[in-house]
Amino acid sequence: RPVLAVRDVHRSFGMDTALRGVDLEVQPGEILAIMGPSGSGKSTLLHILAGVLTPDSGSAHYGSTVTSDLGEAARAKLRLSEFGFIFQFGQLLPDLSAVDNVSLPLLIAGQSREVAVRQARRWLERLGLAEHAEKLPSELSGGQAQRVAIARALVTAPKVIFADEPTGALDSLSAEQVMLTLTELSRASGTTVVLVTHDARTAAYADREVVVRDGRLSGSAR
Ligand code: ADP
Ligand code: ADP
Protein backbone atom coordinates (compact mmCIF):
# COMPACT_ATOMS: atom_id res chain seq x y z
CA ARG A 1 0.00 0.00 0.00
CA PRO A 2 1.52 3.39 -1.02
CA VAL A 3 2.37 5.93 1.68
CA LEU A 4 1.55 8.81 -0.67
CA ALA A 5 -0.62 9.02 -3.77
CA VAL A 6 -2.21 11.56 -6.07
CA ARG A 7 -5.01 10.62 -8.47
CA ASP A 8 -5.83 12.62 -11.60
CA VAL A 9 -4.65 15.84 -9.97
CA HIS A 10 -5.27 19.18 -11.68
CA ARG A 11 -4.13 22.52 -10.27
CA SER A 12 -4.14 26.03 -11.69
CA PHE A 13 -3.05 29.42 -10.39
CA GLY A 14 -5.37 31.90 -12.06
CA MET A 15 -4.78 31.51 -15.80
CA ASP A 16 -1.63 29.47 -15.18
CA THR A 17 -2.14 25.69 -15.25
CA ALA A 18 0.55 23.94 -13.20
CA LEU A 19 -0.75 20.33 -13.22
CA ARG A 20 -3.05 18.75 -15.80
CA GLY A 21 -3.92 15.20 -14.69
CA VAL A 22 -1.15 13.62 -12.61
CA ASP A 23 -1.24 10.13 -11.07
CA LEU A 24 1.59 9.05 -8.79
CA GLU A 25 2.17 6.58 -5.97
CA VAL A 26 5.09 6.60 -3.54
CA GLN A 27 5.90 3.40 -1.64
CA PRO A 28 6.97 3.37 2.03
CA GLY A 29 10.73 3.84 2.38
CA GLU A 30 11.10 4.84 -1.26
CA ILE A 31 13.38 7.71 -2.28
CA LEU A 32 11.67 9.37 -5.25
CA ALA A 33 13.09 12.17 -7.39
CA ILE A 34 10.70 14.45 -9.29
CA MET A 35 12.56 15.94 -12.24
CA GLY A 36 11.64 18.25 -15.10
CA PRO A 37 12.28 21.71 -16.52
CA SER A 38 11.66 24.93 -14.58
CA GLY A 39 7.97 25.83 -14.46
CA SER A 40 6.82 22.29 -15.35
CA GLY A 41 4.87 21.80 -12.09
CA LYS A 42 7.38 19.94 -9.88
CA SER A 43 7.00 22.18 -6.81
CA THR A 44 3.23 22.21 -7.15
CA LEU A 45 3.20 18.40 -7.25
CA LEU A 46 5.48 18.23 -4.18
CA HIS A 47 3.25 20.70 -2.34
CA ILE A 48 0.10 18.70 -3.13
CA LEU A 49 1.76 15.43 -2.03
CA ALA A 50 2.79 17.20 1.20
CA GLY A 51 -0.64 18.72 1.87
CA VAL A 52 0.73 22.26 1.54
CA LEU A 53 -1.57 22.86 -1.43
CA THR A 54 -4.79 21.11 -2.43
CA PRO A 55 -5.71 20.15 -6.00
CA ASP A 56 -8.56 21.82 -7.94
CA SER A 57 -9.73 18.31 -8.89
CA GLY A 58 -8.52 14.79 -8.26
CA SER A 59 -7.32 13.63 -4.85
CA ALA A 60 -4.23 13.44 -2.68
CA HIS A 61 -3.67 10.68 -0.13
CA TYR A 62 -1.40 10.02 2.84
CA GLY A 63 -1.93 6.38 3.80
CA SER A 64 -5.69 6.08 4.28
CA THR A 65 -6.13 9.84 4.81
CA VAL A 66 -7.51 11.84 1.88
CA THR A 67 -5.47 14.98 2.49
CA SER A 68 -7.21 16.86 -0.31
CA ASP A 69 -10.45 16.63 1.71
CA LEU A 70 -8.88 18.20 4.81
CA GLY A 71 -8.99 21.89 5.71
CA GLU A 72 -5.86 23.99 6.12
CA ALA A 73 -5.70 23.51 9.92
CA ALA A 74 -5.94 19.71 9.70
CA ARG A 75 -3.32 19.61 6.94
CA ALA A 76 -1.00 21.83 8.98
CA LYS A 77 -1.36 19.47 11.94
CA LEU A 78 -0.68 16.45 9.73
CA ARG A 79 2.42 18.10 8.24
CA LEU A 80 3.79 18.90 11.69
CA SER A 81 3.30 15.40 13.07
CA GLU A 82 4.18 13.31 10.00
CA PHE A 83 6.40 15.24 7.57
CA GLY A 84 9.80 16.94 7.48
CA PHE A 85 10.73 19.64 4.97
CA ILE A 86 14.02 20.68 3.40
CA PHE A 87 14.26 23.65 1.02
CA GLN A 88 16.88 25.11 -1.27
CA PHE A 89 18.30 27.71 1.13
CA GLY A 90 17.43 30.37 3.68
CA GLN A 91 15.49 27.95 5.84
CA LEU A 92 17.49 28.18 9.07
CA LEU A 93 16.53 30.99 11.41
CA PRO A 94 19.50 33.37 11.18
CA ASP A 95 19.54 34.47 14.83
CA LEU A 96 19.51 30.92 16.26
CA SER A 97 22.51 28.61 16.62
CA ALA A 98 22.58 25.29 14.77
CA VAL A 99 21.49 23.39 17.88
CA ASP A 100 18.64 25.83 18.56
CA ASN A 101 17.48 25.58 14.95
CA VAL A 102 17.38 21.78 15.20
CA SER A 103 15.64 21.90 18.62
CA LEU A 104 12.84 24.11 17.34
CA PRO A 105 10.51 21.47 15.83
CA LEU A 106 10.66 19.49 19.07
CA LEU A 107 9.85 22.59 21.15
CA ILE A 108 6.93 23.32 18.83
CA ALA A 109 5.80 19.71 19.31
CA GLY A 110 5.73 20.32 23.07
CA GLN A 111 8.99 18.73 24.20
CA SER A 112 10.89 20.23 27.13
CA ARG A 113 13.88 22.37 26.26
CA GLU A 114 16.24 19.86 27.90
CA VAL A 115 14.98 16.91 25.85
CA ALA A 116 14.85 18.97 22.66
CA VAL A 117 18.44 20.18 23.00
CA ARG A 118 19.72 16.71 23.87
CA GLN A 119 18.02 15.21 20.80
CA ALA A 120 19.24 18.05 18.60
CA ARG A 121 22.85 17.52 19.72
CA ARG A 122 22.54 13.80 19.01
CA TRP A 123 21.41 14.51 15.43
CA LEU A 124 24.12 17.10 14.85
CA GLU A 125 26.68 14.54 16.08
CA ARG A 126 25.28 11.94 13.74
CA LEU A 127 25.71 14.36 10.84
CA GLY A 128 29.29 15.16 11.80
CA LEU A 129 28.36 18.67 12.95
CA ALA A 130 28.98 18.39 16.71
CA GLU A 131 31.68 21.08 16.70
CA HIS A 132 29.37 23.47 14.85
CA ALA A 133 26.43 23.18 17.24
CA GLU A 134 26.81 26.67 18.73
CA LYS A 135 27.42 28.44 15.40
CA LEU A 136 24.98 30.74 13.67
CA PRO A 137 23.87 29.80 10.13
CA SER A 138 26.01 32.65 8.74
CA GLU A 139 29.09 30.96 10.25
CA LEU A 140 28.41 27.67 8.42
CA SER A 141 29.26 26.69 4.85
CA GLY A 142 26.35 26.05 2.49
CA GLY A 143 26.79 22.28 2.80
CA GLN A 144 26.99 22.45 6.60
CA ALA A 145 23.86 24.62 6.76
CA GLN A 146 22.03 22.15 4.53
CA ARG A 147 23.08 19.27 6.80
CA VAL A 148 21.75 21.23 9.79
CA ALA A 149 18.50 21.57 7.83
CA ILE A 150 18.47 17.78 7.34
CA ALA A 151 18.95 17.32 11.10
CA ARG A 152 16.06 19.71 11.71
CA ALA A 153 13.85 17.80 9.26
CA LEU A 154 14.72 14.43 10.85
CA VAL A 155 14.64 15.36 14.55
CA THR A 156 10.90 14.72 14.87
CA ALA A 157 11.28 11.27 13.22
CA PRO A 158 8.94 12.11 10.32
CA LYS A 159 7.40 9.41 8.14
CA VAL A 160 8.14 11.39 4.96
CA ILE A 161 10.74 14.00 4.07
CA PHE A 162 9.91 16.48 1.31
CA ALA A 163 12.90 18.26 -0.21
CA ASP A 164 12.54 21.02 -2.83
CA GLU A 165 15.84 21.48 -4.68
CA PRO A 166 17.85 20.48 -1.58
CA THR A 167 21.15 20.80 -3.46
CA GLY A 168 20.14 23.76 -5.64
CA ALA A 169 22.40 26.25 -3.85
CA LEU A 170 25.42 23.94 -3.33
CA ASP A 171 28.64 23.18 -5.18
CA SER A 172 28.82 19.62 -6.50
CA LEU A 173 30.95 18.22 -3.65
CA SER A 174 28.62 19.62 -0.96
CA ALA A 175 25.64 18.44 -2.99
CA GLU A 176 27.03 14.90 -2.99
CA GLN A 177 27.62 14.99 0.77
CA VAL A 178 24.12 16.29 1.42
CA MET A 179 22.53 13.60 -0.77
CA LEU A 180 24.66 10.85 0.78
CA THR A 181 23.66 12.02 4.26
CA LEU A 182 19.99 12.30 3.38
CA THR A 183 19.75 8.94 1.63
CA GLU A 184 21.81 7.02 4.23
CA LEU A 185 19.70 8.36 7.10
CA SER A 186 16.44 7.72 5.31
CA ARG A 187 17.47 4.16 4.42
CA ALA A 188 18.58 3.51 8.01
CA SER A 189 15.23 4.71 9.41
CA GLY A 190 12.93 3.63 6.57
CA THR A 191 11.90 7.25 5.99
CA THR A 192 10.26 7.96 2.64
CA VAL A 193 11.86 10.85 0.72
CA VAL A 194 10.27 12.87 -2.09
CA LEU A 195 12.66 15.36 -3.64
CA VAL A 196 12.36 17.87 -6.46
CA THR A 197 15.49 18.53 -8.47
CA HIS A 198 16.56 19.45 -11.96
CA ASP A 199 20.05 18.08 -11.29
CA ALA A 200 20.59 14.55 -12.67
CA ARG A 201 23.43 13.86 -10.21
CA THR A 202 21.12 14.67 -7.29
CA ALA A 203 18.35 12.51 -8.76
CA ALA A 204 20.81 9.61 -9.16
CA TYR A 205 20.66 9.09 -5.37
CA ALA A 206 16.96 8.27 -5.60
CA ASP A 207 15.46 4.79 -6.06
CA ARG A 208 13.20 6.10 -8.81
CA GLU A 209 12.83 9.19 -10.99
CA VAL A 210 9.69 10.62 -12.52
CA VAL A 211 9.68 13.53 -14.97
CA VAL A 212 7.10 16.32 -15.05
CA ARG A 213 6.68 18.14 -18.36
CA ASP A 214 4.13 20.84 -18.88
CA GLY A 215 2.03 19.68 -15.92
CA ARG A 216 2.02 15.99 -16.84
CA LEU A 217 4.14 13.03 -15.78
CA SER A 218 6.05 12.06 -18.88
CA GLY A 219 7.04 8.65 -17.55
CA SER A 220 9.94 7.43 -15.45
CA ALA A 221 13.49 8.29 -16.39
CA ARG A 222 14.48 4.92 -14.93
P1 ADP B 1 11.42 26.29 -8.59
O1 ADP B 1 12.81 26.60 -8.17
O2 ADP B 1 10.92 24.98 -8.14
O3 ADP B 1 11.16 26.58 -10.03
P2 ADP B 1 10.06 28.74 -8.13
O4 ADP B 1 11.16 29.67 -7.82
O5 ADP B 1 9.43 28.71 -9.48
O6 ADP B 1 10.53 27.27 -7.74
O7 ADP B 1 8.91 28.89 -7.07
C1 ADP B 1 9.19 28.91 -5.71
C2 ADP B 1 7.84 29.01 -4.97
O8 ADP B 1 7.06 30.07 -5.50
C3 ADP B 1 7.00 27.75 -5.11
O9 ADP B 1 6.43 27.47 -3.87
C4 ADP B 1 5.94 28.09 -6.12
O10 ADP B 1 4.71 27.46 -5.82
C5 ADP B 1 5.81 29.59 -5.98
N1 ADP B 1 5.61 30.21 -7.30
C6 ADP B 1 6.08 29.80 -8.48
N2 ADP B 1 5.67 30.56 -9.47
C7 ADP B 1 4.91 31.53 -8.91
C8 ADP B 1 4.20 32.65 -9.41
N3 ADP B 1 4.14 32.93 -10.72
N4 ADP B 1 3.55 33.43 -8.53
C9 ADP B 1 3.58 33.15 -7.24
N5 ADP B 1 4.22 32.11 -6.69
C10 ADP B 1 4.88 31.31 -7.52
P1 ADP C 1 8.55 23.96 -11.06
O1 ADP C 1 8.66 23.58 -9.64
O2 ADP C 1 8.64 22.81 -12.01
O3 ADP C 1 9.47 25.08 -11.45
P2 ADP C 1 6.02 25.12 -10.26
O4 ADP C 1 5.18 24.02 -9.74
O5 ADP C 1 6.72 26.02 -9.29
O6 ADP C 1 7.07 24.50 -11.31
O7 ADP C 1 5.16 26.02 -11.22
C1 ADP C 1 4.35 25.50 -12.27
C2 ADP C 1 3.56 26.62 -12.91
O8 ADP C 1 2.63 27.12 -11.96
C3 ADP C 1 4.42 27.83 -13.30
O9 ADP C 1 3.84 28.37 -14.47
C4 ADP C 1 4.32 28.75 -12.13
O10 ADP C 1 4.51 30.08 -12.50
C5 ADP C 1 2.89 28.48 -11.67
N1 ADP C 1 2.77 28.69 -10.21
C6 ADP C 1 3.26 27.87 -9.25
N2 ADP C 1 2.94 28.32 -8.02
C7 ADP C 1 2.24 29.46 -8.22
C8 ADP C 1 1.62 30.40 -7.36
N3 ADP C 1 1.66 30.26 -6.04
N4 ADP C 1 0.98 31.44 -7.91
C9 ADP C 1 0.92 31.59 -9.24
N5 ADP C 1 1.47 30.73 -10.13
C10 ADP C 1 2.13 29.68 -9.62
TrEMBL record:
<dbReference type="InterPro" id="IPR003439">
    <property type="entry name" value="ABC_transporter-like_ATP-bd"/>
</dbReference>
<dbReference type="InterPro" id="IPR003593">
    <property type="entry name" value="AAA+_ATPase"/>
</dbReference>
<dbReference type="GO" id="GO:0005524">
    <property type="term" value="F:ATP binding"/>
</dbReference>
<dbReference type="Pfam" id="PF00005">
    <property type="entry name" value="ABC_tran"/>
</dbReference>
<dbReference type="InterPro" id="IPR027417">
    <property type="entry name" value="P-loop_NTPase"/>
</dbReference>
<feature type="domain" description="ABC transporter">
    <location>
        <begin position="4"/>
        <end position="222"/>
    </location>
</feature>
<keyword id="KW-0067">ATP-binding</keyword>
<dbReference type="InterPro" id="IPR017871">
    <property type="entry name" value="ABC_transporter-like_CS"/>
</dbReference>
<keyword id="KW-0813">Transport</keyword>
<dbReference type="InterPro" id="IPR015854">
    <property type="entry name" value="ABC_transpr_LolD-like"/>
</dbReference>
<keyword id="KW-0547">Nucleotide-binding</keyword>
<protein>
    <submittedName>
        <fullName>ABC transporter ATP-binding protein</fullName>
    </submittedName>
</protein>
<dbReference type="InterPro" id="IPR017911">
    <property type="entry name" value="MacB-like_ATP-bd"/>
</dbReference>
